[in-house]
Specification:
Blueprint: H1 5-14, E1 26-28, E2 33-39, H2 46-55, E3 59-60, H3 66-75, E4 95-100, E5 106-108, E6 133-138, E7 141-149, E8 162-167, E9 172-178, E10 189-196, E11 199-207, E12 213-216, E13 222-229, E14 236-243, E15 250-255, H4 268-276, H5 310-318
Parallel strand pairs: 9-15
Antiparallel strand pairs: 1-2, 2-8, 3-8, 4-5, 4-6, 6-7, 9-12, 10-11, 10-13, 13-14
The structure holds calcium ion (3 copies).
One calcium ion (CA) is lined by residues 259, 261, 263, 265-267, 269-270.
Length: 325
């Protein structure tokens, strides 16, 4: 386990969370939650913010108590998280995970009871649309009060420039190098197994950003061995790692290429599949079709250049006989 926050911060600038700048999630002890304020300088609407929060392993913050609300508001207590001044002279603030349901009452998306509320005077007013969500709103200023908003563009208003994420457990940041791979790893799935006494007790799947970074939020707190595996790369297991109860931990991994059939060893079977598909390319109609050998041609394209060539063979040869570790 390596700790490398500086590297993550640099990497974050290039990632597909794009223009969203990462902060460090901070722990709110009274309710054992983690919160993070995210700034999006070009502005963002509710659905996009909601999706980014989920991609980071959390959800839009649901400050269900006065304490949580003050804590969240302090993470974004800067006018730069808010919209420009609207035609009405006010500003829209960072999004939260509250919404007005078809049942006509307010809900938090994590199902916390909606008993506490911190509406700005005159809010909620249902302005701008039938479906409303919650944002920080303090007239022309910033602070810990809320307003309701359709969550989408409305005439005369620009978008707010941020949102707050809530995590049920401490999210861990990881950075994976996929060896011998030409494209960026953006969109490659990585399967993360949490192992206790040899048993996989939880599995989660993450999607890599362009720089190989990803966030895992452990499904449960505890001490585990943690195994990382991506399609035709061998797994890597680290640990024991105590997750969910401490500060952000950054995991740096480098995964070995060559496991065409995904059984976590580079063997003659991988050679056989690669041979079957030698010279195929992504212009072939069956590139993504499972063949008689149980694999797809794309699975044998180890370097990701869109063709099965001697270069894929070389990767396999170099790593022959290796297994996940
Ligand atoms: Ca409103
Ligand atoms: Ca294999
Ligand atoms: Ca290739």
């Amino acid at each position: 386990m390596q700790f490398n926050i500086a590297k993550l911060a640099v990497a974050a600038g290039a990632m597909a969370l794009a223009a969203a700048s990462m902060a460090t999630p901070t722990h709110y002890l009274p309710t054992d939650k983690w919160f993070e304020g995210i700034k999006v300088p070009q502005g963002i609407y509710w659905d996009a913010a909601k999706a980014l929060a989920v991609r980071k392993g959390g959800y839009l913050a649901c400050p269900a108590t006065a304490g949580e609300n003050t804590f969240c508001a302090n993470l974004i207590s800067d006018i730069s998280f808010y919209s420009d001044v609207s035609i009405h002279g006010d500003r829209i603030g960072p999004w939260l995970g509250g919404y007005h349901g078809p049942d006509g009452v307010w809900h938090w998306m994590n199902n916390a009871p909606f008993t506490y509320a911190k509406w700005w005077p005159g809010q909620p007013d249902g302005y701008g649309g039938a479906t409303q969500v919650i944002m920080y709103y303090n007239g022309a200023g910033f602070g810990e009060n809320w307003g309701d908003h359709p969550g989408t563009a409305i005439n005369g208003f620009g978008p707010p420039r941020g949102f707050v994420i809530e995590y049920d457990r401490a999210p861990a940041s990881a950075y994976v190098e996929l060896q011998n791979y030409l494209p960026t790893p953006e969109g490659v799935e990585i399967v993360v197994d949490f192992i206790d006494n040899g048993n996989v007790v939880a599995t989660s799947t993450a999607t890599l950003e362009a720089d190989g970074s990803f966030i895992i939020t452990p499904p449960t707190n505890g001490t585990f061995m943690v195994r990382f595996k991506a399609s035709h790369w061998l797994s890597k297991t680290i640990g024991p790692v105590t997750v969910g109860t401490s500060v952000l931990e950054n995991v740096n991994l480098s995964l070995i290429n060559g496991d065409v059939d995904g059984d976590d060893s580079v063997t003659i079977f991988d050679y056989l599949v690669l041979s079957d598909y030698f010279d195929k390319s992504d212009s072939d109609a069956d590139w993504n079709t499972v063949g008689a050998n149980g694999m797809r041609p794309v699975d044998a394209d180890l370097d990701g250049d869109g063709t099965i060539t001697v270069f894929d063979y070389l990767i396999l040869s170099t790593n022959f006989d290796k297994s996940g570790s």
